[in-house]
Structure formats: C-alpha cells, structure tokens
Write a structure and sequence with these properties.
The chain is of the alpha/beta class. The protein folds into two domains: 2-146 and 360-389, Alpha-Beta Complex (Quinone Oxidoreductase, Chain A, domain 1), CATH 3.90.180; 163-331, NAD(P)-binding Rossmann-like Domain (Rossmann fold, 3-Layer(aba) Sandwich), CATH 3.40.50.720. It has helices at 39-46, 93-96, 153-156, 162-173, 188-199, 211-218, 231-237, 259-270, 273-282, 289-297, 319-324, 340-348, 369-378; strands at 2-8, 11-16, 28-37, 62-69, 80-82, 107-108, 113-115, 134-137, 145-146, 180-184, 203-207, 223-225, 246-249, 303-306, 328-331, 362-365, 386-389. The strands form four sheets. Strands 3, 4, 5, 8, 9, 16 and 17 form a seven-stranded mixed sheet that branches. A six-stranded parallel sheet has the order 12-11-10-13-14-15, sandwiched between helices. Strands 1-2 form a two-stranded antiparallel ribbon. Helix 4 (162-173) packs across helix 5 (188-199). It comes from Corynebacterium hylobatis. Residues 188-254 form the Alcohol dehydrogenase-like C-terminal domain. This is Glutathione-dependent formaldehyde dehydrogenase. Keywords: Metal-binding, Oxidoreductase, Zinc. Pfam families: ADH_N (PF08240), ADH_zinc_N (PF00107).
C-alpha cells in the first residue's frame, strides 16, 4: 500500500509499505477513504524528530470502511467508521472515568506517556499511522465510531480529532452563554473551537497573524484580531477592562514570537537523536508566546485551556502572575469518545452548525503529501486544512 512516511526534519515521502494485518481478536483493518494533516503532525515534521524513526508512517485523523474484522472487534466488513486518534481499551480504570487519552491498557510506560496514538513517534508507541491506504485499528471493539452513509467524508472526518479536541478545549475553558472567550491561533482546532464557543452562546474573539485564517473565522461570527502589540489591550477594552472569561491556546510549542525557544528547536533538529531527546526532556524548548499571551489576556479568576501541544519538560512559567490572577489551567490530549454524544448530532445536523463544510481548503491525492506538508507549515496558498485522498 501507499503511505506517508517520516524521513527526517521537514521531509516526508510517499512510499510503498506492507499492508497491515490483524494481530489481535479485537483488531480491525480499515480502507482509509480520507485522512487529514493535523497541526500536531507539523511538530513531527519540525521539532520531535529525535523521537521518530526513518520510515515511520504518520497521521492520526482517519476514516474509512472496514475490510477485515477480528472476531472480537464488534465490527463487520463494510462498516463505515471514524477512528479517534488515541487508542483506548474502553474498560480500564482511566477509561471508566472517560479519560480515554490516559488509557492504562495502552499507556506508553517506557516513555512515561499516556495512551498510544496513531502515527505519533516513540513518545506515543510508534504505532503505524493513518496517512495510508489501509490502517490496522487496535481495540476496534471500542475505538471506532460507526457512522451513516448519507453524508460525505468531510462531514464526519473531523470527529477523529479536530471537533472533539476543540469541544474539550472550550469545555475546559468553562464558558457558555453570555460569557466571553478568546481563541489564540486560528488553525483547524482554533477555527472549530471558535465556532463551538459561538454555538454555545459565548462572544468569541479570534487572534491570528494570517489574514486567510482571520477571514474564515469572521465568516462564522468571530471577532478577529491580528497579533499586534495592542491586541490584548483592545480585547480587554471590549470586556469591561477585565479580559475574557476563558482563553484557548490553540497554538502550542511552535508559537511565533519566541526567538530563544525557536533557536532551541533548531538545535534539537541538528543534534543526534539521543542528544536531541535529552534536550527535549530536560530543557525549556517550548515556544511559549501564545501561552504567555493567554495568561496575560484572561481575566482574573478565569481559565486558560491548552489544546496546542507542548513538548518541553523545563519550560518556564510566570508563576507569580498565575497565582496572583487566580488563573486555572486545564489541558491534555482530547478524550475523543467522551464528547461523541455531544458532537456527533451536530455533525449530522442538516444545518451544519459547526460549519464543517467550511474548513477544508485543500483536498489532495496522497502522492502530493510532501508538497501539502510544506504548504501547510509555511501557510501558503491560503492553506488551513488539508485532507488527503489515499486512493485518488
């Protein structure tokens, strides 16, 4: 089969690799009909190389159709499914508490990490990823979400990651009708978090340096701002001088405006893998501009919700400000299945309240994945969200 494989910093290729096979009774094999490139994939492309191995299949936002089903998978050949990015058993102590991204059955204990993720480095189990024509799905008796036949792929695909991640980010921010919410970063997660905030009745401010991203958010009723020096002051003026009730950092470790950490990222990419891993594990390598801005912007007693991925272990935080402002921080990988009852009806609603019809900017054959990664990282050609067609 064809698959997108990691080959080094800023280098992916489309290669012929062996087809996956069933390994456990509760496995399933799906033929992938759509698979997306996530902003988190850019961390593998740029920063997390020391945890990757040449030839790793990447990607974690798939949907498709079952072509093989283990006897304990609870699936049948022909079922149309969306596959959450985190692999969970559904029955351990953590899963019983809906903390599926912390599943104790699939935790990567040798890395002290949570549940295994598709296509996401040694940190999360080196599981073959979903930017491929076929995908082996472990614990298929729990993970995959069966969906209908009527709607096109792009209405369902983002249940694999984007929509539940954005929903959790807004829930963690603790806002609802009549509240105010700021979203820093209007990539795919930020776009959807902003729309969810609006759907739940909040006044939403969106901040991003890219005009095309701001224009997309504005189409959905979001008040948008560039990342100029006075943006936070302007938003405070619009919130009676307090700042928003909640702020979602949808950027993460590769934020603009962090020159020292950017240099650390470059150093990680130049070092041998073992040294690069040590730097990631023991140094402050995250680019924290978005997080610092979130802490500055949120009102006293408000909540900062992190959905952007951070990877450093010694990144400095302004603890005095956090304590003095009585700020709550919530974060973590999305517990996808925990939110499915909330988001699946919205995806299937004929009115499309989350605007899933207006998110994909590029749908390309899988053979064009290398060009798509470069375009997505550099934000050229108005690129906001790329979906790959493995069988085009």
């Amino acid at each position: 089969m064809k698959a997108v494989t990691w080959q080094g910093k800023r280098k992916v290729s489309v290669d012929s690799v062996p087809d996956p096979v069933l390994q456990e009774d509760n496995d399933a094999i799906i033929e992938v009909t759509s698979t997306a490139i996530c902003g988190s994939d850019l961390h593998l492309y740029e920063v997390l190389g020391p945890f990757m191995d040449e030839g790793d299949i990447i990607g974690h936002e798939p949907m498709g159709r079952v072509v093989e089903a283990g006897p304990a998978s609870n699936l049948s050949v022909g079922d149309r499914v969306v596959v959450p990015f985190a692999i969970a058993c559904g029955s351990c102590w953590m899963c019983d508490r809906s903390l599926y991204s912390q599943c104790e059955t699939t935790q990567v204990r040798d890395q002290d990490s949570g549940a295994r993720l598709f296509g996401y480095s040694r940190l999360y189990g080196s599981v073959p990823g979903a930017q491929a024509q076929y995908l082996r799905v472990p614990h298929a008796n729990f993970g995959p979400v069966k969906i209908g036949e009527e709607l096109p792929d792009h209405r369902y695909l983002f249940l694999s990651d984007v929509i539940p991640t954005a929903w959790q980010a807004v829930q963690y921010a603790g806002v609802g009708r009549g509240d105010t919410l700021a979203i820093i970063g209007l990539g795919p997660i930020g776009q959807m978090a902003a729309r969810i905030g609006r759907h739940l009745g909040a006044r939403v401010f969106g901040i991003d340096p890219v005009p095309e991203r701001r224009a997309m958010a504005a189409r959905h009723g979001v008040e948008v701002f560039d990342t100029t020096g006075d943006t936070n002051d302007h938003i405070r003026e619009l919130t009676q001088g307090r700042g928003p009730d909640g702020v979602v950092d949808a950027v993460g470790m590769e934020a603009h405006g962090s020159p020292i950490a950017k240099a650390a990222h470059t150093a990680v990419g130049m070092l041998p893998d073992a040294a690069g891993r040590a730097l990631m594990e023991h140094a402050g390598v995250d680019r924290l501009a978005a997080l610092y801005s979130s802490i500055d912007l949120v009102r006293r007693g408000g909540t900062v919700s992190l959905s952007g991925v951070y990877g450093g272990q010694a990144s400095p935080l302004p603890m005095l400000t956090l304590f003095d402002k009585q700020i709550q921080l919530r974060m973590g990988q999305a517990n996808v299945k925990a939110w499915m009852d909330d988001v699946l009806p919205l995806v299937e609603d004929p009115d499309d309240p989350l605007g899933t019809e207006d998110l994909v900017t590029h749908r390309l054959p899988i053979d064009q994945a290398p060009e798509a990664y470069e375009m997505f990282q550099k934000k050229t050609d108005g690129c906001i969200k790329v979906v790959l067609d493995p069988h085009a």
